[in-house]
């Protein structure tokens, strides 16, 4: 953009000097600048100083006429000298303003005047930016950043950049570039961009999800992999069995009534994660402890899930002002969840283990151990501290609860709006029910290709974290002929990436035709490369079992009216969900399935009574 087109008046509408300055050759700037500052009117001087700073920053920007570094730096020095002289005799506040402004300008100018060696290449294209704040106002203007990113990707192409305060943001929106960066050049894009709120919650990336790419991350990741391998997670099958039965039983029992299915799906995924991580389960979605946990997850997202102003400037003052308010709320969540619920529980489990070991007992002989117990038993060998175990389990809980429930909610929505797919799914599971005389189970995983295809199609079309979990570059790079700076925030626009390869029709058969039923292959909903979601196999199993059982037992309908479609417009949040609350009305498919549910329930109660219930 030409300098003259810049809207300096947004800084102070009453002052037009910078506007005039901007359309003149640089050599005239000093004289005009000197006239614009006056010790007689500190308020006007302050405003003019701001305009000058904006002007100076712009003159030093790469998009301006390229000045000699020495010329640009001398303009900056002159500006600051004049500003200080003009403000002598003014109050202390103004001097602080001048000093702060000087720091901003010098930092911005130094970055631009003495760029790194690869910076002769341009950053990827970007929309017009405001001086100093960059594209922050653009992002602040929407509550749906995913849609804005989509729109910008259409305008600026598969790789574009944004400037949020001091932070360079790179957005990638096609499969080729996603593959190139996440897999082929995986190391450069393997950092994690962490905002201040999440940094506090994770003790500066002491966990796995937010850990900077490096040794600690690698250590935590190995442990996560070990306990989440496809083979190891079959140990959770009994828990998945119990929880999916709880869900189906509820649908059968409340047939004909509207059910707000989201809460029950949340109970499903929360119980699976909590049982396996900490040996706890809840009986009802209305349990106050469960509601408080869900609210706390949402609170952390609201406070800093997509980054706040404090994340985009290296300013202690700004940080102090903004974080002062947020800090109290974060500390309250940490006290309730991290220290209270998780640490409290794992210390309790550790005490029990220590006691059993002291008495020469084998804890694994009496019960299925939860992850906390398994990790305590191997903590010396794995070089883990109690805090490491706490952080890892919090990651599993936070990463694995809402994402699975949200994907399953979309799935219910698709099935209600497209009943023809319910019919095909029913045909698939009915064969299993008829052959074995029981409800589908995880033993049937391989015999459920259409169920798996439907789940994968939903995950492709409605990724619940459409902008992924932001990465950070660990080094500079050149991508598609553009300069990618080190420490840039990198966002993967999953919807754009998927749209670059597939059409937007809901057609699960595409995965059967291409013989590609593995959930994460060919889609980016779970990320890709070194930091790809390690929970994907568990997510696949929990979704397949639930869907197979639901369609075996009930016909799903919209409680708001037969044949009425649910509004599929997505609403942005911790996870992206349908805007409309989904109220399901189910119809039990036959007396036989009702009996099978009762039989499975009785078997479960029998197992529990004989002390064989797992992982509780
Ligand atoms: C439908 C369910 C899920 C979805 C859509 C999902 C999605 C994601 C995405 C997009 C990422 C970022 C990947 C990247 O940067 O490339 C991620 C990371 C992660 N997920 Fe999941 N996830 C799901 C379930 C789970 C479950 C069940 C667990 C735990 C058992 C889990 C644990 C994690 C962890 C620990 C990471 C961080 C990995 C790292 O930074 O190295 N997720 N997930």
Structural features, described:
Keywords: Heme, Iron, Metal-binding, Monooxygenase, Oxidoreductase. Its cofactor is heme. The protein has 616 residues and is α+β, with helices and mostly antiparallel strands. It has two domains: 6-113, no CATH class; 215-611, Orthogonal Bundle (Cytochrome p450). The chain has helices at 17-22, 29-35, 42-59, 69-87, 92-113, 136-140, 145-156, 175-184, 196-201, 215-228, 237-253, 261-278, 288-304, 316-358, 363-366, 371-377, 386-400, 402-417, 419-436, 449-461, 494-499, 509-513, 536-553, 591-609, and strands at residues 159-164, 167-172, 191-192, 258-260, 471-472, 477-479, 482-484, 489-492, 554-558, 570-571, 577-578, 583-588. The strands form four sheets. It has a five-stranded mixed β-sheet. The protein has a three-stranded antiparallel β-sheet with strand order 4-12-9. It has a two-stranded antiparallel ribbon with strand order 6-7. Bound molecules: protoporphyrin IX containing FE.
SSE layout and pairing:
Layout: H1 17-22, H2 29-35, H3 42-59, H4 69-87, H5 92-113, H6 136-140, H7 145-156, E1 159-164, E2 167-172, H8 175-184, E3 191-192, H9 196-201, H10 215-228, H11 237-253, E4 258-260, H12 261-278, H13 288-304, H14 316-358, H15 363-366, H16 371-377, H17 386-400, H18 402-417, H19 419-436, H20 449-461, E5 471-472, E6 477-479, E7 482-484, E8 489-492, H21 494-499, H22 509-513, H23 536-553, E9 554-558, E10 570-571, E11 577-578, E12 583-588, H24 591-609
Parallel strand pairs: 2-8
Antiparallel strand pairs: 1-2, 3-5, 4-12, 5-8, 6-7, 9-12, 10-11
Helix pairs in contact: 2-4, 3-4, 3-5, 4-5, 11-12, 11-23, 11-24, 12-17, 12-18, 13-14, 14-16, 14-17, 16-17, 18-19, 18-20, 18-23, 19-20, 19-23
The chain binds protoporphyrin IX containing FE.
């Amino acid at each position: 953009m030409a300098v003259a087109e810049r809207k300096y008046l947004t800084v102070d509408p009453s002052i037009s000097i910078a506007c005039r300055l901007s359309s003149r050759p640089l050599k005239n700037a000093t004289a005009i600048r000197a006239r614009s500052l006056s010790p007689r009117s500190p308020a006007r001087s302050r405003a003019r100083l701001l305009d000058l700073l904006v002007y100076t920053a712009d003159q030093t920007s790469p998009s301006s006429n390229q000045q000699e570094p020495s010329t640009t730096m001398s303009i900056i020095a002159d500006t600051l000298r004049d500003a200080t002289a003009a403000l002598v005799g003014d109050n202390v506040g103004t001097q602080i303003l001048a000093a702060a402004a000087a720091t901003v300008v010098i930092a911005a100018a130094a970055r631009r005047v003495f760029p790194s060696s690869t910076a002769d290449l341009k950053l990827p294209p970007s929309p017009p930016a405001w001086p100093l704040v960059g594209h922050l106002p653009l992002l602040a203007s929407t509550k749906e950043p995913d849609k804005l990113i989509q729109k910008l990707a259409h305008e600026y192409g598969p790789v574009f950049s944004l400037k949020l305060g001091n932070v360079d943001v790179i957005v990638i929106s096609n499969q080729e570039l996603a593959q190139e960066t996440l897999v082929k050049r995986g190391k450069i894009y393997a950092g994690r961009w962490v905002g201040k709120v999440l940094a506090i919650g994770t003790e500066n990336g002491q966990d796995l999800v937010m850990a900077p790419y490096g040794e600690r991350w690698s250590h935590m990741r190995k442990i996560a992999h070990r306990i989440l391998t496809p083979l190891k997670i079959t140990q959770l099958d009994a828990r998945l069995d119990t929880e999916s039965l709880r869900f189906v039983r509820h649908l059968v029992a409340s047939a004909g009534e509207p059910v707000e299915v989201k809460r029950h799906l949340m109970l499903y995924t929360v119980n699976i994660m909590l049982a396996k991580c900490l040996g706890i389960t809840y009986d009802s979605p209305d349990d106050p402890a469960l509601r408080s946990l869900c609210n706390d997850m949402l609170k952390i997202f609201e406070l800093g899930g997509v980054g706040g102003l404090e994340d985009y400037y290296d300013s202690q003052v700004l940080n102090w002002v903004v974080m002062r308010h947020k800090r109290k709320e974060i500390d309250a969540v940490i006290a309730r969840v991290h220290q209270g619920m998780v640490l409290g529980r794992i210390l309790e489990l550790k005490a029990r283990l220590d006691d059993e070991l002291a008495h020469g007992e084998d804890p694994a002989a009496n019960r299925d151990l939860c992850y906390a117990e398994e990790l305590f038993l191997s903590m010396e060998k794995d070089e883990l501290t109690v805090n490491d175990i706490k952080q890892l389990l919090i990651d599993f809980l936070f990463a694995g609860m809402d994402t699975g429930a949200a994907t399953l909610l979309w799935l219910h929505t698709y099935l209600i709006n497209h009943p023809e797919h319910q019919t095909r799914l029913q045909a698939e599971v009915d064969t299993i029910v008829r052959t074995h005389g029981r409800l589908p189970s995880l033993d049937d995983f391989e015999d459920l290709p259409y169920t798996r295809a439907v789940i994968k199609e939903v995950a492709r079309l409605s990724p619940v974290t459409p902008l992924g979990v932001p990465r950070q570059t660990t080094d500079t790079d050149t991508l598609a002929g553009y300069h990618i700076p080190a420490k840039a925030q990198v966002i993967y626009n999953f919807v754009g990436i998927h749209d670059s390869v597939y059409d937007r029709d809901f057609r699960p058969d595409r995965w059967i035709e291409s013989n590609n039923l593995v959930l994460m292959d060919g889609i980016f909903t779970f990320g890709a490369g070194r930091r790809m979601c390690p929970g994907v196999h568990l997510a696949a199993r929990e979704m397949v079992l639930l869907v197979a059982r639901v369609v075996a037992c009930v016909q799903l309908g919209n409680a708001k009216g037969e044949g009425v479609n649910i509004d599929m417009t997505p609403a942005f949040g911790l996870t992206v969900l349908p805007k409309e609350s989904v109220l399901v009305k189910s119809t039990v498919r036959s007396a036989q399935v009702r009996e099978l549910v009762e039989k499975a329930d009785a078997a479960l109660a029998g197992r529990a009574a004989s002390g064989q219930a797992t992982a509780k």
